[in-house]
Automatic annotation (TrEMBL):
InterPro entries: FN3_dom, FN3_sf, Ig-like_fold, Lectin-like, Papain-like_cys_pep_sf, Pept_cys_AS, Pept_his_AS, Peptidase_C1A. GO terms for molecular function: cysteine-type peptidase activity. Keywords: Signal. One of its GO terms (biological process) is proteolysis. The keyword ATP-binding does not apply. NCBIfam families: Synergist_CTERM. Residues 722-814 form the Fibronectin type-III domain. It comes from Aminithiophilus ramosus. This is SYNERG-CTERM sorting domain-containing protein. Belongs to the peptidase C1 family. PANTHER family: CYSTEINE PROTEASE FAMILY C1-RELATED (PTHR12411). Residues 1-26 form the signal peptide.
Length: 1151
């Protein structure tokens, strides 16, 4: 039984021991990042399906920071600048390095990390940093040494493309930089070459701030402000985005990207399921623009509000907007980010670490988790040195750490041995990687075992201890050994972390300088810790230290950058030639003391932070210049502004008019603004600009003045005095046009103004220019059918010329004007080969063309057109004979066509037929002839009262009067009444006679329209029907006799009363029809010629070249009457009646 009892006792003791052991390591690891879990599953699935491939890019980390959603980070920095400017751009202050190109590798994560580190280096005063992305990416995959392995279990012999396409993230980049794998200069490890690992470091990592971005409406404000604080106070931030198209893989074709504006946005709840975990590309935020319009995004997917991050890509500067793009604040796939802050290379010489692969997961030694935990790492000093700093990760906000350093620790007991540093406190406001400088450096000899112990509280995060362990597909090469890393709930009972996970180590590092003597560290005095509003050129002071080894000198460093070295005093005024600090910026400074002749014997003071005051901006007006005249009514204002802090300034433009009214406009962040509301013409304004840096600093420029240009004399102000129009075109009066206009608007009272009027033709040639002080001017030199442009420039005293607005007008065509035309209307005696001539003037100077109508009828038709040369001004007749009618059609080629009146003339080609003659009132004409009377009557007498005398009196024929009184009436009467002789023989009276008449009314001498006043005759036998039986025919042959009148049957009784005893009679006339009055001496003009008993006449003026030299064309008229009639007139009535026809045988002379 006792044995049995002892057995139970033993079992109980063993059980208690087991419980104790379980309690010692019964902690909890943080849940992994869901995006990482999904990524690993996808990779495993692809491997099993044979479709796995490496594409590089940004891959998720196992660390989950979703607990940071909605939390404001950088609160102390935020307290100093809770209000952010609407726009901010690191490029404007020179704090963003140039755009790089990652091609051909999927190494974007190295580019975003280096871009952030370069940006913070620029802020620290390092010129043109360019850190090697290849070095970081290559040794993130390939072992640099056994102590510094690559992350993934891949062979170093794989092609470089495969190695560089393994992918990465900010946690990997942080681990590599923190362990000393970079940063190195690009020149030491070019992107095109495989690095050999021998490149010297150029920049060490000191701090990395991590933040979580949640695009949900609940947390969006905090997320946006966190990035703004990080970028504004520290530098560019590395973030993850989704940069592809779920369907095509081409981002430019994605409905979430607008390639025209380089704007990206993925909405929450999108059909492709894209969320934070889908970020596949690492980029760098360099600024923001709250005013960036939502309309700039792809029309298929637009955010609810304006605002975007200004993002630098790593695809070269030919992509996007010079290598940049805009990312909406509301983007659903924007992932966790980081800001990398470095320090100088000589900050330490050796790193003691067990976590070369960095933060892989988080752990709480409490089973149910908790915000507080203890962690420790134990190291063995490899050489004599001084432990000056420690570094670790913290996952909460406003984390609190207490740091202890122990030397000579025992195995498994990290708090044993000598406590050299006991609970040095530190508050870490933001999650991430933090380096803490020890208040008192700890000297260690080679082989000394020492521990770094941290009591850490991470508010809001229940897994305080950052741990490196093996995570397949991420940290494949993580290893651990017992006795290296420990965790504890209370700092008393410790658990070796390998008891929890054999591959796990605490992420806790120690940094040591080389061996030193006994030199105490200086104590900083001014500026005080966390001092605010420190000058941009501050002075520094510290307490002196001394050494038995020699004289001590001091180096003063700000942000790891020395601003003074080798000082022998303990104060420093800002060095001349040193650039001032930037305003409203947190700076970290410390002093290094060293023995002058023993540089290895040095020590470093505690580091202190201070915040510089905000540097006030300055601004001055540029344009319009002070006193400028003729400024546009919608001017563009420009100014020069400067901000000593490199802040993005916002401006407000103010204008004050002459009444004191103030106008203002938000001018944005540019250095110019276009005024869009027209200012008053001629008015004087004062203007100035206010500049605001967004941090409480503002400036106002000095007010300057300008005068708005007068409104010019515009086209609508120009008119013509009493204009008339033809077809919408202005008709030019004789002489020219009078132009009128309104004065320019804005003229001041009493200002003197004159005007310059310029008229140009369609080719731009100046055709008129004139000056006046009036508001009208007479224009000369214009022609019709022209297009003109007129401007009226106002010349204002003390202002200058106000150029007018052109007015275009068209002038109507002016038709040609007849200047002369010959021969005159009604002209006679025109030679048969004479010439028609004319001259027309065109007011517009146009070339004229003529169409000549020439014919024998007054109603001229196109059949009467005769050909002319192009520039004809005359026409030569050819054998013209008798009466002709003519007219002209004149064309100026611009629609001006003039038809002349119809004129008539008689060409002296022979005598004219009666039908060709039409005397008009006042015309002179004449007849001449020889009467031959042949009758079978004897002793007959003519009717009483019928004689020549009666016939030539106006009372006998209204339309005729005798114009020549020297007529031998006796002989003429005798000739008409001669009736004695043998029957059948002609009795010839050879005396010629001539009558000259002047028409006192128009007489129509065309066939069948002869006017005879029968009421003046002593009998009623003559009627108008007589004329229906007359035919007038020109003699065509030598037989000069032909029937003129045939009176037959009852017709004779209608016209004549013939004696019963008379059976027949005939009367022949030989008539010469002259187209002018006979000369006074008719005997020389009229001669008789008798041939075969028939009389002829030659009519001429006695000159060889006279116009009447052609032989007279004889015309024979024969009248016959048969039958008889009762009573009435004697036979002499027949000759008398025929004589009544004489007025019809007239010619016409034109006036």
């Amino acid at each position: 039984m006792p044995r049995h009892r002892l057995s139970w006792i033993s079992l109980f003791a063993l059980f208690l021991l087991l419980l104790s052991s379980l309690a010692a390591w019964a902690g909890a690891f943080a849940p992994p990042n869901p995006a990482f879990v999904a990524y690993v599953e996808d990779q495993a699935r692809a491997t099993s399906e044979g479709t796995a491939r490496t594409e590089g890019g940004r891959t998720p980390s196992p660390v989950d920071l979703s607990h940071l959603a909605g939390k404001s980070l950088f609160t102390s920095a935020g307290d100093k600048g809770a209000w952010f400017p609407a726009t901010f751009d690191l490029r404007k202050s020179g704090l963003s390095s140039p755009v790089r190109d990652q091609a051909p590798y999927g190494s974007c994560w190295t580019f975003s990390a280096m871009a952030s580190l370069e940006s913070t280096a620029l802020r620290a005063g390092i010129a043109s940093p360019d850190y090697a992305e290849m070095h970081l990416g290559y040794f993130g995959c390939v072992d640099r040494s056994p102590e510094l392995p690559g992350f993934k279990d891949v062979a170093a012999t794989l092609p470089l493309q495969t190695l560089m396409d393994q992918g990465g993230d900010d946690f990997r980049a942080t681990a590599l930089l923190a362990r000393g794998t970079g940063a190195v200069d690009e020149t030491e490890a070019p992107y095109e070459e495989i690095p050999d690992g021998a490149a010297p470091l150029s920049r060490r990592l000191e701090t990395v701030y991590n933040f979580y971005y949640d695009s949900g409406t609940r947390y969006q404000k905090a997320s946006v402000e966190n990035i703004k604080r990080a970028v504004a106070f520290y530098g560019a931030a590395s973030v993850g985005v989704y940069a592809s198209d779920p369907q095509t893989g081409n981002w430019n074709l994605s409905p979430y990207f607008n390639s025209a504006t380089s704007a990206a946005f993925i909405p929450a709840g999108n059909p492709d399921g894209l969320t934070v975990g889908w970020a596949n590309h690492a980029v760098t935020v360099v600024g923001w623009d709250d005013t960036y319009s939502r309309e700039n995004f792809n029309a298929l997917n637009r955010p609810e509000g304006d605002g975007a991050w200004i993002v630098k890509n790593s695809w070269g500067d030919s992509w996007g907007d010079g290598g940049y793009f805009y990312l909406s604040y509301e983007d659903a796939a924007l992932d966790t980010g980081a800001v990398y802050i470095g320090t100088t290379v000589d900050a330490f010489e050796r790193i003691y670490q067990h976590d070369p692969l960095g933060w892989v997961t988080s752990y709480s030694p409490a089973a149910d988790g908790g915000e507080r935990a203890w962690m420790a790492n134990v190291f063995t000093a490899a050489e004599e040195g001084r432990i000056e700093s420690v570094a670790f990760y913290a996952g909460g906000v406003d984390n609190v750490a207490y740091i202890s350093v122990h030397t000579g620790v025992e195995a498994g007991a990290p708090r044993s041995g000598l406590c050299v540093i006991d609970s040095q406190g530190a508050t870490l406001e933001a999650p991430g990687y933090h380096t803490i400088h020890l208040d008192e450096p700890v000297d260690v000899a080679a082989g000394t075992t020492f521990s770094i112990v941290v009591d850490l509280t991470t508010p809001g995060y229940d897994y305080p201890v950052a741990v490196e362990n093996r995570s397949r597909g991420y940290s494949d090469k993580a290893t651990a050994a017992r006795g290296e890393s420990f965790v504890s709930v209370d700092g008393t009972t410790w658990t070796d972390l390998t008891d929890v996970d054999a591959t796990a180590n605490v992420c806790l590092k120690a940094f040591a300088d080389g061996p030193v003597g006994h030199l105490p560290k200086p104590t900083l005095l001014s500026p005080e810790t966390d001092a605010d509003d420190v000058s941009l050129t501050p002075s520094f002071s510290w307490q002196a230290v001394s050494s038995d080894e020699g004289a001590v000198v001091y180096d003063v460093l700000i942000g790891g950058f020395p601003i003074a070295q080798g000082l022998t005093t303990t104060t420093l005024a800002w060095p001349s030639g040193q650039e001032p600090l930037r305003g409203h910026t947190i700076y970290r400074w410390w002093v290094t003391a060293r023995v002058e002749n023993k540089p290895e014997l040095d020590t470093k003071s505690d580091a202190r932070n201070f915040t510089t005051l905000n540097a006030l901006p300055s601004v001055r007006n540029d344009a319009p210049a002070d006193g400028a005249l003729n400024v546009a009514a919608e001017p563009t204002f420009s100014w020069t502004a400067d901000d000593g802090d490199g802040d993005s300034l916002s401006f407000v433009l103010y204008l004050t008019d002459e009444s004191g009214r103030i106008l203002s406009a938000d001018a944005g962040t540019g250095a110019a603004h276009s005024w869009t509301e027209p200012l008053d013409a001629g008015a004087i304004y004062l203007w100035q600009v206010s500049a605001d840096d967004g941090w409480g600093g503002s400036a106002l420029s000095e007010r300057t003045s300008f005068r708005v240009a007068l409104d010019p004399v515009a086209s609508g102000d120009i008119d013509f005095k009493n204009p008339s129009f033809e077809g919408g075109k202005i008709v030019i009066p004789d002489g020219g046009l009078t132009l009128t206009w309104q004065p320019p608007k804005g003229l001041g009272a009493g200002e003197t103004v004159s005007y310059v009027v310029t008229v140009r033709d369609a080719e731009g040639t100046v055709v008129f220019r004139g000056e006046t002080t009036a508001t009208e001017l007479f224009l000369k030199g214009l022609v019709g059918h022209g297009t003109y442009t007129v401007t009226v420039d106002a010349v204002v005293e003390n202002v200058g010329t106000v150029t007018g607005t052109p007015k275009v007008f068209e002038t109507a065509n002016r038709p040609p004007v007849e200047a002369s035309r010959a021969p005159a209307d009604g002209a006679v005696d025109i030679p048969a080969n004479g010439r028609l001539s004319w001259r027309y003037d065109d007011p517009d100077g146009d070339a004229l063309t003529y169409v000549l109508y020439l014919g024998t009828e007054e109603a001229l038709t196109d059949d009467d057109i005769v050909p002319l040369s192009a520039d004809a001004t005359g026409y030569a007749l050819s054998n013209a004979d008798g009466r002709r009618f003519w007219k002209l059609a004149v064309d100026d080629g611009f629609g001006g066509v003039v038809a002349s009146s119809v004129r008539t003339f008689i060409a002296d080609g022979g005598l004219r037929q009666i039908g060709e003659l039409s005397p008009a009132s006042g015309d002179l004409f004449s007849i001449a002839g020889l009467v031959i009377v042949s009758t079978d009557l004897s002793g007959a007498e003519g009717p009483a009262g019928i004689d020549v005398t009666t016939l030539r009196q106006p009372s006998a024929i209204d339309n005729l009067k005798v114009a020549s009184a020297d007529i031998d009436d006796e002989k003429l009467t005798q000739g008409l009444r001669q009736g004695t002789g043998e029957a059948g023989k002609a009795t010839s009276v050879g005396t010629p006679f001539g009558l000259s008449f002047e028409a006192d009314a128009d007489i129509a001498l065309v066939p069948l329209t002869i006017r005879i006043d029968r009421d003046a005759l002593p009998f009623d036998a003559v009627s108008a029907d007589l004329l229906d039986h007359l035919r007038f025919v020109k003699v065509l042959d030598d037989d000069l006799a032909f029937d003129l009148v045939t009176l037959a049957g009852a017709d004779r009784n209608r016209f004549f009363s013939v004696a019963e005893e008379a059976e027949s009679f005939s009367v022949s006339f030989r008539l010469a029809l002259l187209d002018r009055a006979l000369p006074a001496d008719r005997s020389s003009a009229v001669q008789t010629l008798t041939v075969d008993g028939k009389g002829y006449f030659l009519v001429h003026d006695g000159a060889e070249d006279g116009i009447f030299t052609d032989p007279l064309v004889p015309v024979h008229f024969e009248a016959a009457a048969t039958g008889g009639s009762s009573g009435g007139c004697a036979l002499g009535a027949a000759p008398a009646a025929l004589l009544l026809l004489l007025p019809a045988l007239l010619s016409r002379r034109g006036k």
